[in-house]
Design a protein that fits this description.
Number of helices: 12
Strand content: 15-25%
Helix content: 40-55%
Order of helices and strands: EHHEHEHEEHEHEEEHEHHHHH
Strand order of the largest sheet: 1-3-6-9-2-10
Structural class: alpha/beta
CATH topology of the largest domain: Rossmann fold
Radius of gyration: 21 Å
Low-confidence stretches: 12-16
Distance between the termini: 50 Å
Mean pLDDT: 89
Number of strands: 10
């Protein structure tokens, strides 16, 4: 893959050492397993930091399958996914991209925030998302048929959609889909406590604070505070950092650059923790 792309591959052996922690909220685990066994592609929708990527890692490990993860961005092209000819040792050789590797070897290919990629990426995905399950490689003249243990999973955040960056209905309707939101308070508290090491009773206040801050979305904030940021905050607190300093670094600065908005966030934090 070219330097413009970002991908990672988790092997079956690595996945089976320890199942990545994920607390189910609805029927998402059952849906994923059914989609995998029926060779159906899956679309995950939801806000940043709500657990979509962790969910996919959890399910890949649970199924014992290699996971090829690609973080999509503005410069990501179809060639970054399929592969390209590169000069190696004085010779020009074809090097498979992560999507091609997943199709050849079997496994789960996860494209995170797929709407961020260039438009030619979705064109490459279409033949893999119908009953053909094919990946044409024009540069090599190959036509790869995906094996039974190949699965395509994509995700995006509908809250950031606009006319230039949206998933066309013709693409969305090729996928089984599941909407993710932030976990219910009891589940989110368990997740934050498990991930950070902070006592559950101390995590309750953070989860309650998150609910207040999420109510500000669409008013002062573009996006509500994520579960990921709550984990960061709890981790700093568990390490001994004062609560207000930890909250400033994780629940204020990442959410807004506006001084008035930051002041409002700090007031909400102080009211929650009585400081």
């Amino acid at each position: 893959m070219s330097p413009t792309g970002a991908s990672s591959v988790e092997s079956i052996a690595e996945n089976q050492r320890e199942l990545p922690f994920y607390q189910p909220v609805d029927n998402e685990c059952e849906l994923f397993e059914h989609a995998y066994r029926q060779r159906l592609p899956l679309l995950l929708k939801g806000p940043t930091g709500c657990g979509k990527t962790r969910f996919v890692s959890h399910m890949a490990a649970k199924l014992g399958k290699s996971l090829f993860t690609v973080s999509c961005h503005d410069d990501l092209t179809a060639a970054d996914l399929t592969g390209r000819y590169l000069l190696q040792g004085g010779e020009t050789r074809w090097v498979d991209g992560p999507l091609t590797r997943a199709v050849r070897e079997g496994g789960i290919c996860y494209l995170d925030e797929v709407v961020e990629a260039r438009k030619d990426v979705t064109v490459v995905l279409h033949p893999l998302t119908d009953d053909r399950r094919l990946l044409p490689l024009e540069r090599t003249g190959e036509l790869l048929e995906a094996p039974d243990d190949f699965m395509l999973v994509i995700s995006y955040n509908p809250g950031y959609q606009h006319i230039l960056k949206s998933l066309k209905p013709s693409t969305r309707q090729r996928f089984v889909a599941k909407t993710f939101g932030f976990p219910p308070p009891t589940v989110e508290r368990e997740v934050v406590a498990r991930e950070s090491g902070l006592a559950p009773e101390r995590c309750s206040a953070l989860v309650n604070l998150a609910a207040r801050l999420r109510d500000m979305k669409g008013q002062d904030l573009e996006e509500g505070v994520s579960t990921r940021l709550l984990v960061y905050c709890a981790t700093l607190i568990a390490a001994g950092m004062p609560i207000l300093q930890a909250a400033q670094a994780t629940l204020v600065e990442p959410l807004s650059d506006d001084e008035d908005v930051q002041e409002g966030l700090l007031e909400a934090i102080k009211a929650t923790f009585g400081e």
